[in-house]
């Protein structure tokens, strides 16, 4: 009998420790909601005539430009990504193995860097137009010049050739897992290879196509650098100019809120596209799709066709950056300013990655320890930030932490007679908060993928041996999911390095990263000054591409 109170006490203590994880998950979810709630609050503070003013002066131009941009990018990225996926999944030709991973390379190129590179490459006195004039026998841009890349059409084309991998990755995976007997059945009924693709393969892959296009459109909506460089006044550019040049925070909040509605519409459209026809395959064992062998001229033409998106989206800009960076390095070496920007970039991205990964672990582990509605909703709400553009999150964080800074400053002055100033915004804490809120989805998804491979029986065995929840994580879950955690951390780190909109809006005074330095130099037209910073961002961006290519190669080998 004397043992019962001790057992009950230990059980209560264990339950209290589990509750701590759940409480932490709920707090993280609430903090992730802060930018959205602050945005709603600030937008409601605008004057009654503000919406009418914005509709006539801002939305009248920005909304049509944004919609045209999204439609164009959705069509071209969807077509290029789907055709590239079908080419490498359903055909075998020289260089196919190279294209399988090389088609991922444009992911390493932020959209604003591609725009920055092509503005110089296609400049009237740039290398391409000089070569065209030499071939045609002209001597100056006044006699002959190509159409200006600074246009909506140019922006659509460049963004599409950078963002098509978001379609290529899921669609290729879908093609690789489609049952080969379905394709053979269609061929036996007289369908041509093109007919099989249009009438069988594409309908089966439609859910993956919808997901890929929606991701590409969200990235296009998030873009600020490429759109501004190429003269397209999108909603994202309008949010930035409304706040920075006009100091109109309620107006910027209302435009950002409108962007949030567009994101919700994109998500709803993607869900609708995936819910329509549902397909299933036979329960019998299916053999994978057998690639059609292309040899000789057809094989090399297929390789050239598959190489085109890589050349436009990665190779040409990369070659330009290497040449310009080498010229700049030979002329002046590495400037102390660039070294300082490298430190700022790596430190802030590293701190944000650690915080984001920790929050992701807490949210996912709470869902494993205490499965239920509270933990599930905490997970869902904490990952809402990735769907919103960086500009939207940044405006929400600016509103919320600006109010927090003012409250702390007023309290400190009232009690101690000391001003704390902009405690969070001035120190960069707001930027870390924005990175965490925006990229927590990546961390939580990676942690969840790692934990899902660990049987729950391991947890039960650890608890039987008297281990606490924290000890179980340290000795069981962390060692077994270390690779997944590292991959998630790498993805978050790279996204933090490349993030431009949130960094532009929330950086402290006199604070520059690689991304903001590149933006400033490109805005001034001094392209060669930022070539080293742009090349550094691309080199860092290649790391997750290598990871994705390795994972894809392992999956292909397993099949």
How does the SSE layout of this entry go?
Elements lengths: L2 H42 L5 H41 E2 L3 H7 L8 H11 L5 H10 L15 H12 L1 H13 L2 H9 L4 H30 L2 H5 L5 H10 L4 H27 L16 E2 L2 H37 L3 H34 L3 H10 L7 H27 L6 H5 L1 H24 L3 H9 L4 H12 L1 H17 L2 H6 L7 H11 L6 H28 L1
Parallel strand pairs: 1-2
Any key phrases for this structure?
single chain, 559 residues, two-stranded parallel ribbon, 24 helices
Question: Can you describe what's shown?
Answer:
This protein is mainly α and 559 residues long. It is built from 24 helices and 2 strands. The protein has helices at 3-44, 50-90, 96-102, 111-121, 127-136, 152-163, 165-177, 180-188, 193-222, 225-229, 235-244, 249-275, 296-332, 336-369, 373-382, 390-416, 423-427, 429-452, 456-464, 469-480, 482-498, 501-506, 514-524, 531-558; strands spanning 91-92, 292-293. The longest helix has 42 residues, at 3-44. The chain has a two-stranded parallel ribbon with strand order 1-2. Helix 7 (165-177) packs antiparallel against helix 9 (193-222). 44% of the residues are buried.
């Amino acid at each position: 009998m004397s043992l019962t109170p001790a057992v009950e006490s230990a059980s209560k203590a264990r339950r209290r420790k589990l509750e701590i994880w759940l409480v932490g998950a709920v707090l993280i979810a609430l903090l992730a909601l802060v930018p959205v709630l602050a945005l709603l609050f600030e937008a409601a503070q605008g004057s009654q005539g503000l919406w009418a003013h914005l509709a006539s002066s801002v939305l009248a131009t920005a909304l049509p430009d944004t919609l045209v941009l999204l439609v164009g990018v959705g069509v071209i990225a969807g077509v290029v990504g789907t055709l590239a996926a079908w080419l490498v999944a359903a055909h075998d030709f020289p260089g196919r193995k190279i294209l399988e991973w090389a088609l991922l390379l444009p992911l390493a190129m932020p959209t604003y860097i591609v725009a920055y590179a092509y503005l110089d490459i296609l400049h009237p006195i740039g290398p391409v137009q000089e070569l065209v004039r030499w071939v045609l026998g002209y001597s100056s841009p006044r006699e002959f010049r190509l159409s200006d890349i600074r246009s909506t059409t140019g922006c659509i084309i460049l963004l599409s050739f950078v963002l098509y991998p978001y379609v290529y990755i899921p669609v290729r995976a879908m093609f690789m897992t489609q049952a080969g007997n379905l394709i053979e059945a269609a061929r036996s009924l007289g369908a041509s290879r093109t007919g099989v693709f249009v009438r069988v393969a594409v309908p089966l892959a439609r859910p993956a196509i919808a997901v890929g296009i929606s991701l590409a459109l969200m990235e296009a909506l998030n873009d600020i650098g490429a759109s501004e460089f190429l003269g397209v006044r999108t909603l994202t550019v309008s949010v930035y100019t409304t706040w920075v040049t006009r100091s109109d925070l309620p107006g910027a909040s209302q435009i950002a809120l409108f962007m949030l509605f567009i994101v919700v519409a994109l998500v709803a459209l993607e869900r609708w596209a995936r819910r329509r026809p549902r397909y299933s395959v036979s329960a019998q064992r299916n053999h994978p799709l057998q690639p059609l062998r292309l040899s000789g001229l057809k094989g090399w033409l297929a390789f050239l066709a598959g190489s085109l998106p890589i050349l436009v989206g990665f190779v040409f800009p990369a070659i330009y950056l290497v040449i310009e960076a080498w010229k700049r390095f030979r002329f002046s070496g590495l400037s102390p300013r660039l070294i300082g920007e490298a430190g700022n970039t790596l430190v802030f991205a590293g701190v944000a990655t650690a915080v984001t990964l920790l929050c992701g672990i807490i949210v996912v582990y709470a869902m494993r320890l205490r499965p239920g509605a509270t933990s599930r909703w905490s997970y869902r709400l904490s990952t809402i930030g990735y769907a919103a553009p960086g500009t939207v999150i940044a405006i929400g964080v600016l509103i919320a932490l600006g109010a927090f800074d003012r409250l702390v400053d007023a309290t400190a002055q009232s009690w101690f007679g000391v001003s704390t100033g902009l405690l969070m915004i001035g120190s960069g804490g707001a930027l870390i908060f924005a990175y965490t809120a925006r990229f927590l989805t990546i961390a939580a998804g990676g942690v969840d993928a790692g934990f899902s491979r660990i049987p729950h029986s391991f947890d039960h065995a650890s608890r039987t041996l008297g281990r606490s929840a924290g000890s179980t994580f340290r000795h069981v879950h962390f060692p077994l999911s270390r690779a997944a955690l590292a991959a998630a951390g790498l993805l978050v780190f790279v996204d933090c390095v490349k993030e431009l909109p949130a960094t532009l809006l929330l950086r402290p005074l006199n604070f520059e990263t690689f991304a903001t330095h590149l933006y400033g130099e490109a805005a001034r037209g001094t392209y060669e000054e930022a070539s080293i910073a742009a090349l550094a961002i691309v080199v860092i961006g290649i790391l997750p591409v290598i990871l994705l290519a390795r994972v894809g190669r392992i999956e292909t080998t397993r099949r």
